[in-house]
Fold these 3 entries.
Entry 1:
Amino acid sequence: MERDPSPRRILALTAGDPSGIGPEIAAAAWRLRAEHAVPPFYLLSDPDLMRARMPGLPLAVVWPEDSASAFADALPVVPLRARFTGAPGRPETANAAGIVEAIERAVADVASGKADALVTCPIAKKPLYDSGFAYPGHTEFLGHLAGGARPVMMLAGPDLRAVPVTVHVALAEVPRLLTTRAIVETAGITARDLADRFGIARPRLAIAGLNPHAGEDGAMGREDEDVVRPAVAELVSLGIDARGPLPADTMFHPRARATYDAAICMYHDQALIPAKALAFDETVNVTLGLPFIRTSPDHGTAFDIAGQGIARPDSLIAALKLARAMADAKA
């Protein structure tokens, strides 16, 4: 579908799992809109659930086209066809239909120009799997909705952008799944989107080694010499400013971080531990490689604190701000 050439200056926010903290951090982000310069957004959710969970919160049940004008005085909620049920902290398989519908409709809204970018509240995989959901996770489902695009996860904070090549797989599976092609594709998508969506003319990529000390010239495993180093050479041949494999234990101190724009890491925790340790409340999950902009908080559903009124909206606010900035940079 052809995109409307005139941006509506609004972001689509999906409901996430309603048993988690999504409803309350969405409401908190709206309440802090003036204090934290939160860009306008609308929430795809069940208005009845929002009224029950957030008594006293001004709500406006709207279509996406009317949400920007409503944002100043009320949280715009675009109603789902599906209804949400259950209590905070108790995930329900029955909510899977609404969770999926919110994602599908938000993607369609961005594709049609009703919204400029997509921001997603956290979901949990098990209730979706129990309902027959056929995708490993949120990101893979977005890749499917984008026509089979290869999505790449980036954790973006004020001091570090980190990208894992392998993501939600057991650590024992990483050496088997890590290939030169996967590293080149992940780093290539990262370099392209850093240029197109972050305005970095010539992105610098630091490529981590897999093994301690980047393999110590093969003494601690051959993967760095046989898989990672050829990937770095291919990236350089493609005109990408890449270097490595670098020992991961010395990549993330301040002087090292000043030398690159993104760290390409070999597995999930190698990327996410430093990103979250440096700025847990300000780091944003960005999906690269899609034909639309998608950001998300870097935390999960937090069922253990849902409904207690203590969940912090910082990461969601950061995700909304980054989505707005990326949309503006691309416009």
Entry 2:
Amino acid sequence: MSDVLERFLRYVKIDTESARDSETYPSTAKQLELLRLLADELRQIGLRDVAMDQYGYVTATLEATTSAPAPVIGFLAHVDTSPDFNGKDVRPQIVENYDGGDIVLNANEKIILSPQRFPDLLKYRGESLVTTDGTSLLGADDKAGIAEIMTSLAHLAAHPEIPHGKVRVAFTPDEEVGAGVDHFDVVAFGADFAFTVDGGEVGELEIETFNAAGAKVIIRGRNVHPGTAKGVMLNALIIAMEYNALLPVFDRPEHTEKSEGFYHLTQMSGGVELAQMDYIIRDHDEQSFEKRKAFLQSAAEFLNRKYGEPVVEVALKDQYYNMKKMIDPHPQILAVARAAYEAVGIEPRVIPVRGGTDGSRLSYMGLPTPNLFAGGHNMHGRYEFVPVSALEKASQVIVKICELAAG
């Protein structure tokens, strides 16, 4: 499976950045370039029923090589990269035989990938790494997953002696903006269960995600000339700061880990008359999740009472839920994944992911979909990197899952 690196390097150079608040689906037309390419490559390696629908979803089938009863397994990855950091003009760099020291990503800009700041680097002494050039993200989230799935399918198609049941594959747009499976047809996909290949470092196996919501907080002030403002002006920016100060300081991403939830202020804009703050709310525990949303509303009610009028309005929208609730009733899915990891020499680490995947929503749509590692580190930024060995190991795991499920 030596072509996984070549595929990955080719895919990351295609700009597929998605966009928030777009009125189209996909949110950016440029995602379709990679989706069309993937459809062509699926045909070239011999898959059947290759299709790209009106929403950009690319699906295909690898027919079974055994007549024995076997579940239909799906594998999914998303083509878009995060809109939160530059995804254009990605120029990947290969660091061979990494020596454990600083990696100069960009000498002109003095951008350094250092193990002092990112100690995970030290796990890969002597290995080859793919990094950015310091001016963009890399796109391992989730083009590593795409390359791994494509490489695995090509390997299985070229080796029909490997027993496996029917395999379905799907590549989707817009996961990074929370719309990845808005129009996905689970029934037509026809899998008994699936895996997203969209996780972090080697060994991670994710069956639990956050419950997630978004909140738009609108603050309506009253602007008058500052010379005559006493007793009249309401400064929406000041009230916005008051609102944020009511939220627990240590319930922020920079102070939480493992299963701890948080409030995260992602954007703030406006002026004296009108201001807006955007938050994401995350918690693995369902009851704590509901309490967090209620607290946002109670903070608004407090300020409205303080100012004697409705100055703060909170609009909440649930985004996805903890997929563990939907996956736990199907222990055979976790069992086959564990066995596949172990069969290729990887110790599985079942962890709660501090994020979400398309699998979160798919699991609630009737398709249990845990998440496999894809191998990337420091996603969504200039310090992103992926070990070449991780690309290879993930490809091996996918092949082994197909093989073991048929047994």
Entry 3:
Amino acid sequence: MSRLSVIAFSEAFRTFWKDLAQDLTVATDVLDAADAAVPASATVALVWAAGGAERDAMQWLETHRVPSGLPVLVVGTDPGRRTAMQLVARGASDYFALPEDLEIFRNAVAAALKGGRGEAPAAPGSGPSPFADIVGDSPAIRQALARAAQLLPHRNARVLIIGETGTGKELFARAIHAGGPRGATPFVAVNCSAFPEHLIESELFGHERGAFTDAHAAKPGLFEVADGGTLFLDEIGELPLGLQAKLLRVLEDGQIRRVGGTKPRSVDVRILAASDDQLQDRVHAGGFRKDLFFRLSAITIRLPALRERGDDVVLLAQSLLRRLAAEHGLPVPLLTAEVRQRLQRHAWPGNVRELKNALERALLLAPPGELSAAELLPATDGQRDGGALPFPAPLCAITTAAARATVQICGGNRKESARRLRISPKRLRRLLAANAGTGSLLEETVEAPFAM
């Protein structure tokens, strides 16, 4: 059982902890502040300095030994950035000012008791969890983790992972592969929207020498490269209809045929696929085969958007900052109350990918050991340049301006922008590149403004 050691400088702790303990399964040792050390059996050390005892907590951290690697959470009432920095400099893992940080503190304690991240438990004796890199403790992400964990023993189970861009679909796919019977075999990822239509078939199925003009030698496709392992097909909805039929054939009989070849080749490949929420709409519109959709979606895992994950954004920010700081050779900065508020207020349309980019920018543009709140989110929604659409104006100009404004709102994430506009990424690229005054764009927009 997890064990929490508490160094309490305030009697208010006992009343507070009685309520918090109802949510957590944890044994608690309340220590006298004069005790020499935190027991080695402790999972988390909590220094309770709420009530104006922050300086006492600083002195305790300077004079008492804490087991190496043990999370030390300090709770006070001073929201000042200087207090937080001084505590962290003396060895605290994090500082929480009540009452503003109450919910964040609750989640941080729960995450620390689970080992610092909300991960699905590994089977007894199986070693580290394959989901160890997936950080979060919200009900939505834990539900997705639990569902994924159930699939680990099944070698051939096909899974469709649904989620917005940047929610971690490939991370989940890699974890499902790594934690299952195929974990020691190849994991090959391919983005179906990254290749022109005339090249994707050759990439997936390979080609024989002379199959087309530049085919100077035979080349195996990604199905052959992944033989024995897992092929992850990201953006599966962008796969051309003709190739969807070939993929269905592979799922049915386990055989492929190279472009320009006549001999079928057997492959043992597990398919994991990913798409956004619009895949079923593509089925209804005739852009994606219904039979293939049913084949791929027998088991579906839906990943929540970051805006649906509550305080996970703070846990993710802490984890990403540790990684980014190590990558750039910088000290890990403290998440101040201002930064936490900005993190929680923003909708994060680009999800975890946008969060990582924002944190890296704020980290690199601040003094070492700090995080620039101003650079984290330089412009708030509704205060971005060019926020007003031109009107009255030709329809083509309005359409182009709307596309550009949406890209700005989405932090430059074109895939998410296309999803919000309900158009394909290719159409979005044409809109952004087009001259707003051209008649051809006007005609195209009027005829099919929401074509997929």
